[in-house]
Amino acid sequence: MSRFNKRLGSIKPSPIRAFDEEVGQLENIIKLTLGEPDFDTPEKVKQAGIQAIKDNFSHYSQNPGLLELREAIAGFMKEKYHVVYDPVNEITVSVGATEAYASSLLAILNPGDVVLIPSPAFPGYQPVISMAGAEIVHMDTSATDFILKKEQLEENLEKYGDRVKVVLLNYPTNPTGVTYDREAVKEIADVIKQHDIFVLSDEIYSELVYEEEHVSIAEYLPEQTILIHGVSKSHAMTGWRIGFSLAPAEITQEIRKVHQFIVTAASTISQKAAATALTESKDEGLVMRQAYKERRDFMISSLNELGFECAKPSGAFYIFAKIPSDFGLTSMEFCRELAYNNRVAVIPGHAFGPGGEGYVRISYAASMENLQEAVKRISDYVENKKQQG
C-alpha cells in the first residue's frame, strides 16, 4: 500500500453509493437513495444527440467544449440568473458537474489550504479536497435551519485566517433541499468580498427552486466566484455527463489546464444534445419542477404525520428527515432496519458530515406510485416500533 498515493489512504468510497449498493440487491426494494431524476431526457434533446451521431460528430471538440454549447450556456445563465460570462474565455464544458468542481478545486488548492463548507454537505467534495492536500472544515448548520449565517462564516474566517482559500457553497442543498434567498446570499457575499478568497458555488439544482427565484452568488461576487452548473438535474441528463464551470478568465485559464489533462474534452455528441437542451428546451426543468413540488408536499405531509421532523425543502428533490428520538437508533441502524425489514432504502444522515447524524436523506425523484408505497411501508415500520415500545 505504501506504493500508492498516500492521500488516497484517507479516502473511502462514496457512502451514498456504498449504502445504495448494499441494499439495492434486496428483493422488492423501493430505492429513494440517489439523486437521479426519474424523468426521461426531453425528446428534442434526444433527437439532437441522435442527429449528432448521424452527422458524425464523433471527434474531439475543443478542450473547453464546443463554442456552440458555451454560447448556449452563456445565454441560458444570463436569461435565467442574470450572470454574464464570455463563452470564449470564461466557460468550460466538463464531464458532469462532478468534474467541473473537481477540476476547479484542483486548480486553486495547495497543500495546507482550508476549505470552509456548510454542513450537512454532499460527501463528494471532501475526497477531491483531500487529494489536493487541503483541509475541509465543516460549519455545522443544523442549529440554524441548515442555513449558513454570516456570524458563523465570520467566526471561521477569523479562526483559520490566511489558510482559508475557498468557501464552498451548494444550494439548493444536497442533502437538505434548503436554499438561500436573496437576502441570505447577499449577506454571505458581503462577508466573502472582504477577503482574498474564492467562493465555489455548486448550483446544479437551481432550476428546481419551488417558491422563490434562485439567486446566484455570482451576481454579487463575479470576480471571486467559480460557478458550477450542468444539465443533469434540470434536463434529466445524468448519463449524458455534461456540466460546466463559469469563472473570470484568469481563473478559467487554470481550470482548463486541469480539465485538459484529465479528460481532454467532454463527449461531443453529448455536447450537441446539451446545446439543444439549453436553447430549444431551456424550460424543460420547469415541467419537472412542478411534479417534484407535488411529490415534496405529499412526502412532507406524510412524514410529519408519522412523527418525523423535516426541514421543508425549497429546492432540489431531497427531504432531510429527523429520526424520532424515541427510536433510539443511529441513522445507519435506522436505514438498515427500514431497508431489510420493510424494503425502503434511504441514505443515513451521517454520510453528510457534522449535523447529519440523527437524520436520513430521502430522495423524492421517484414516481408518485413508488412514493405512496414507500410511505405505507414506512408507516408499517413506525407502527411496529411503537408496538415494540
From TrEMBL:
Query: Which CDD domains does the protein's record reference?
Result: AAT_like
Show the InterPro entries listed in the entry.
Answer: Aminotransferase_I/II_large, AspAT/PAT-like, NHTrfase_class1_PyrdxlP-BS, PyrdxlP-dep_Trfase, PyrdxlP-dep_Trfase_major, PyrdxlP-dep_Trfase_small
State if Coiled coil is listed as a keyword. yes
User: Is Transferase set as a keyword in this record?
Assistant: yes
Cofactor entry: pyridoxal 5'-phosphate
| PROSITE patterns (UniProt xref) | AA_TRANSFER_CLASS_1 (PS00105)
Q: Where along the sequence do coiled-coil regions lie?
A: 143-170
Q: Which Pfam families match?
A: Aminotran_1_2 (PF00155)
Q: GO:BP terms for this protein?
A: amino acid metabolic process
> Domain Aminotransferase class I/classII large spans what residues?
28-378
Q: What is its EC number?
A: 2.6.1.-
Output the Gene Ontology terms for molecular function: pyridoxal phosphate binding; transaminase activity
* Catalytic class of the enzyme: transferase
Keywords carried by this UniProt record: Aminotransferase, Coiled coil, Pyridoxal phosphate, Transferase
Q: Which family does it belong to?
A: Belongs to the class-I pyridoxal-phosphate-dependent aminotransferase family.
The UniProt entry, under PANTHER family, shows: AMINOTRANSFERASE, ASPARTATE AMINOTRANSFERASE
Protein name in the entry: Aminotransferase
Biological source species: Vagococcus elongatus
